[in-house]
Write a structure and sequence with these properties.
Elements: H1 3-23, H2 32-54, H3 59-85
């Protein structure tokens, strides 16, 4: 993996993680690293789903799937972290 690929993956992960946090109502007890990791997982999982559903031919479908996965992961991770810290 080249340096520009790693930087691109990090930026896309941050964008997807931030978008997931924006779309999930309420406050999530997540830091920047957790947001980045959530976004990276969403990017890879959504890309994988897009490849298997439509053969990777639809950029828009893949993007929507990545956003949906980011929202689901943010809700799960944010809820788990909130439950661990005791914040309501």
């Amino acid at each position: 993996m080249h340096t520009h690929s790693i930087i691109s993956a990090i930026l896309i992960g941050l964008l997807l993680g931030a978008l997931g946090r924006l779309l999930v109502p309420g406050r999530q007890a997540m830091g920047m690293i957790t947001t980045l990791l959530t976004g990276l997982v969403a990017a890879f999982a959504g890309g994988w789903l897009g490849d298997h559903i439509n053969g990777g031919r639809s950029f828009l479908l893949t993007l929507v799937l990545q956003i949906v996965v980011a929202v689901i992961l943010t809700a799960l991770v944010g809820g788990y972290a909130r439950g661990r810290t005791g914040a309501h």
